[in-house]
Design a protein that fits this description.
The complex is a heterodimer of chains A (607) and B (378). Chain A has 18 helices and 24 strands. Chain A is an alpha/beta fold and 607 residues long. Classes of the chains: A alpha/beta (607), B mainly beta (378). At the A-B interface, strand 3, helix 1, helix 3, helix 4 and helix 9 of A face loops of B.
């Protein structure tokens, strides 16, 4: 690969569980810009069982759209020569279900929780947490370990100089389970021991024959301190060495790339952290995929990530139905589909995950499911981010007993930016739909910027930042991030129609005053390249950030949707009476121009 | 050939009358292998067995005797590795010349696994649990994997379903429905279903499923089910499609999915033609990484024909028969009449690649996203 400053073109792919996405970035007039994007079904599964087939197909589409030749003899041509080939190729991967880790610790809220944070920070899905106080019996723990088939196991437990025997007991349980790796029958399961240094020798004795054991420094050396870095790095290293190398076609893919293949969530996290740091803001990022929903947050510079492993739009869509309940999905619809049929249709999406909504009702159902998946994933994030102060922090001893630090780090009023990513948000036919889904699910408070990842390329830009920060940053701001506009949402509740907000917009052309009563959605024009001074005066029952009834003045930037004023109240409640609910929804959707008007007689089955 | 974005998604289900099938029969822990390479085995034949360590139950002796954990060893009547019987006294304390007397008893029969002087807990492991693995299909043992399992090979018909529940089962194939679209209802189930792999057609009703389980049928293979019926039968909502561990007394294989959908003709014919023959069924499904589909195998041990690889996926072309897999046309058969190259706006306002298809039943020509169709492989 040429030196970073000489990169003329970069190809980046993200091998997702359903689709492989490829982007071509080129240096144009001294600036990196997205040239084209291509996609193809991921080919980890039968009949292909080779991830590079899907990569090749996605790149072929990039070739067709860009008119450039990028592959020859089934390989990516590097470096660029004339108009042929690219200077660098990078990739992320969550195909095959991503990186699946099982965590073992002594106490759920202490060492096991620290281990869980290390695994999540490394971009893993935590399949289960086995701990002495998990309420299971040993045989149940053994059974669980046998049945889950994780990609690796992370064992924590004991502070240095503390408990040894219990740690060894847990290691013995792992040895007794003799768990088999998910991919590849002929290699031993990678196990990382990151517990009490005094237990190392005994743990090694218990595990070295049955597993591929690696020992790293204790991730909880004292009760008051976490050191997650070494365990996290080792997880990513093992992901490359073992898991990726075993997945169909990945050894070939690893030979192609100019940087290590990153787990998709780790790449997205890298990017979100960089954005928060660059702008000194609080950010929530969400990536809603087919199988999982990842939520990332940076508040006061502290990064947290959670993954809701079974909340997604295709593979896990039935679980959204099960967890949220059909009624919660139906409440976002302005029609009355046959609930039985709707249940079947949602389940069929699970078993045929790449199908797309074909009519308006189908679209609204999918977006209703998305609202519920996002809402549930965000609830989980707020809960797990509670007292979860990121990596390498000093944890107070009271945290261990649940007495202190229980408050969530997620402060919606202090939140500056929400970035949505994933097919249902990035590919919503109208951007207003994406804005509405995020507002309904996250219920932002005060003044919050909304944005979406235009064509779902945050993963590729995250891994790209490891070889060229400049290219990643320039493409992110110019081509990836689509500003939807600000959302102004006061906290409080009042009867619909009573005075709520007075908004004064100071534009170059003059001032404009808008009064918005409670219970409404309003869309004010504010173009993407426009910045205005805005004064928001809430009535006494409402707060936009400076306290109840206190006015707030700030500058806001526009977006492709405009300025959304949401006076529906917080927490958001829909009318219980069905007719009233539908009338209210129709009013809100119409105010935003969220959906096309389709004649009633054509609103039939879910498509 | 490769599948690009211009092609429809197909889950790659195998439906073939001539498959070479190999199945690894693996123990959860190393144990004993009961067969040798070259042995001909029947589906029900034991090929490997082992003993899983028994359940572990703990007793907090320090707490029971009201002594500190480090003093526990002084009061023990047993040691690590000793066998104990249920309710046997394992620790005893006496004080004030025997006036106060405390004891701790074994919570189960078993072996003393560990004694902790840190927590004062004793772990007692119960009797080992016997695990036996059968051959699953009639065939030949072609490989022994140490003391952990064997590989059985056979030739025969193989039909993968799209979703199943319940684990492995064997039995004689019994066709209940006269056509692939006939619903499988309760009145079709009788005592003759006992031990059989029952082949339905379209949707199976909850009552039919219950009746089949009650009649002792080994498995039901059918086109579809209502999601509510499946949840009711399972007793819990099916969240993610990772199944096979359910203990239902019957395995279920759906060839098409949820709703009122007929079994695809090819699967129906393949199974109906083999009525009366022995079949092996596995409902285990994983629609996610390392996808596992439920399957029905009708072995032909001793057959020597060459297997066909039926998984070649062909591209969409004008004239291709397809099956639409998303409402409002879910399950409808059609023929492609045009494949416009340009992106087309559909009702949702999404710009997608579409196909114009003629619906088989009505001859009506409609526009459908290419993502919402499966090629029917003939």
């Amino acid at each position: 690969m040429p030196p970073q400053e000489q990169l003329r073109s970069i190809l980046a792919t993200d091998c997702g569980s359903t689709t492989t996405k490829a982007i071509l970035i080129e240096l144009v007039d001294g600036e990196y810009r997205l040239r084209v994007r291509g996609e193809a079904p991921t080919t980890v599964e039968a009949p292909f069982e080779d991830v590079t087939v899907g990569v090749g197909n996605a790149v072929r589409e990039v070739e067709e759209l860009s008119g450039r030749t990028l592959m020859r003899d089934g390989e990516i041509i590097r470096p660029q020569s004339g108009d042929i080939g690219v200077d660098a190729y990078v990739s992320t991967s969550s195909a095959g279900g991503g990186l699946q880790v099982m965590v073992v610790g002594l106490v759920r809220s202490m060492t096991a929780e620290s281990a869980q944070r290390a695994a999540l920070g490394a971009g893993a899905i935590v399949m289960d947490v086995v701990a002495l106080d998990d309420g299971r019996r040993d045989y149940e723990r053994i059974e669980r370990m046998r049945e889950l088939r994780p990609d690796m196991i992370l064992i924590s437990g004991g502070t240095d100089g503390g408990e040894i025997r219990r740690v060894v007991e847990m290691a013995e349980l792992v040895a007794a389970a003799n768990p088999q790796a998910r991919l590849g029958a002929d290699y031993q399961l990678p196990v990382i021991f990151a517990g009490n240094t005094g237990a190392r020798e005994l743990v090694t004795g218990a595990l070295e024959r049955a597993t591929q054991l690696t020992v790293v420094p204790n991730l909880r050396p004292t009760m008051e301190r976490e050191e997650l870095g070494p365990a996290r790095d080792e997880i990513q290293e093992l992901f490359l060495q073992h898991v990726m190398a075993q997945a169909p076609g990945y050894s070939k893919l690893m030979d192609w790339t100019d940087a290590d293949i990153m787990p998709t969530p780790a790449a997205v996290g890298t990017l979100i952290e960089a954005v928060a740091a660059r702008e000194s803001i609080n950010v929530v990022g969400v990536d809603i995929g087919g199988a999982t929903t990842d939520v990332f947050s940076v508040f006061g510079g502290t990064f947290n990530r959670t993954v809701s492993a079974n909340l997604g739009m295709s593979y896990s869509i039935s679980n959204v139905l099960a967890e949220a309940g059909l009624d919660n999905i139906l409440r976002w619809l302005t029609m009355h589909p046959d609930p039985r049929r709707l249940g079947n249709d949602i389940r069929n999406k699970m078993i045929r995950p790449t199908t797309i909504p074909q009519n308006l009702l189908g679209l609204m159902v999918e977006q209703g499911v998305a609202r519920e998946a996002l809402r549930l994933a965000f609830e989980q994030h707020k809960m797990l981010a509670s007292g979860l102060k990121g990596v390498q922090r000093q944890r107070d001893i009271s945290d261990a007993f649940g007495a202190g630090g229980a408050e969530s780090l997620v402060d919606m009023m202090a939140l500056d930016l929400i970035v949505g990513s994933g097919g249902v948000l990035s590919h919503a036919p109208r951007r207003r739909q994406a804005a509405l889904m995020m507002i309904d699910a996250f219920e932002p408070q005060g003044i919050t910027r909304l944005a979406v990842d235009s064509i779902f390329m945050m993963p590729q830009l995250g891994v790209l930042s490891t070889i060229s920060d400049q290219a990643a940053t320039e493409v992110f701001y110019r081509d990836c991030l689509i500003p939807l506009g600000p959302c102004i949402a006061p906290v409080g509740n009042a009867r619909p129609g009573v005075p709520c907000l007075r908004i004064t917009l100071s534009r170059a052309s003059g001032s404009e005053i808008v009064d918005v009563p409670a219970g409404e959605m309003r869309l004010l024009p504010l173009a993407e390249d426009e910045r205005v001074q805005v004064t928001v005066e809430p009535t006494r029952a409402f707060d936009v950030g400076d306290g109840r009834g206190r006015a707030m003045e700030t500058q806001v930037a526009g977006g492709v949707v405009g300025m959304i004023v949401d006076t529906r109240g917080r927490p958001l409640r829909l009318p219980e009476d069905d007719a009233e609910r539908i009338a209210t929804l129709e009013q809100w959707y119409r105010a935003l121009g969220a959906y096309p008007e389709v004649p009633v007689e054509r609103v039939g089955e879910v498509g | 050939m490769a599948v690009g974005v211009t092609h429809g998604y197909t889950p790659g289900l195998r439906i073939t009358d001539r498959a070479l099938i190999r199945r690894l029969r693996r123990l959860p822990l190393p144990g004993r292998i009961h067969v040798a390479v070259g042995d001909e085995v029947t589906a029900e034949q034991l090929v490997a067995s082992t003993q899983l360590p028994g359940n572990v139950v703990n007793v907090n002796v320090a707490h029971e005797l009201s002594v500190s954990p480090e003093d526990v060893p002084d009061f023990l009547l047993i040691g690590e590795g000793d066998h104990v019987e249920l309710r046997q006294v394992i620790a005893e304390s006496k004080s004030f010349w025997g006036l106060f007397h405390s004891i701790a008893r074994a919570p189960i029969s078993g072996t003393i696994e560990t004694i902790s002087d840190v927590t004062g807990q004793i772990l007692v492991r119960g009797a080992p649990i016997q695990v036996e693995i059968d051959a699953y299909v009639d065939g030949t043992v072609i490989e022994i994997r140490g003391n952990e399992g064997v590989v059985v090979e056979t030739r025969g018909a193989l039909a993968q379903g799209i979703l199943g529940v319940g684990g492995e089962a064997h039995g004689k194939l019994r066709a209940l429905c006269a056509s692939p679209d006939q619903a499988c209802s309760e009145d079709m189930i009788d005592d003759d279903c006992r031990g059989c792999v029952v082949v339905g057609g379209g949707r199976v009703t909850l009552n039919a499923l219950r009746a089949a389980a009650e009649a002792g049928a080994a498995a039901i293979i059918t086109g579809a089910i209502d999601d509510v019926d499946l949840d009711t039968f399972l007793g819990v909502p099916l969240g993610v499609a990772i199944t096979g561990q359910e203990d239902l007394g019957i395995s279920l294989v759906l060839t098409e999915g949820f709703g009122d959908t007929p079994m695809r003709q090819r699967t129906f014919e393949l199974l109906a033609e083999r009525a009366g023959r022995r079949a092996s069924v596995n409902g285990a499904t994983q629609i996610r990484a390392g996808v596992i589909r439920p399957e029905v195998i009708v072995a032909e041990p001793g057959a020597t024909w060459d297997a066909r690889d039926e998984r070649e996926v062909s591209g969409l072309a004008v004239g291709s028969p397809v099956r639409l897999v998303r409402p409002p046309y879910f399950g409808v058969l059609a023929e492609i009449v045009a494949l416009p190259e340009e992106l087309t706006q559909i009702e949702t306002e999404a710009m997608v690649r579409v196909a114009r298809v003629k619906l088989e039943a009505t001859d009506e020509v409609v526009t459908v996203p290419r993502a919402n169709m499966e090629i029917i492989e003939e």
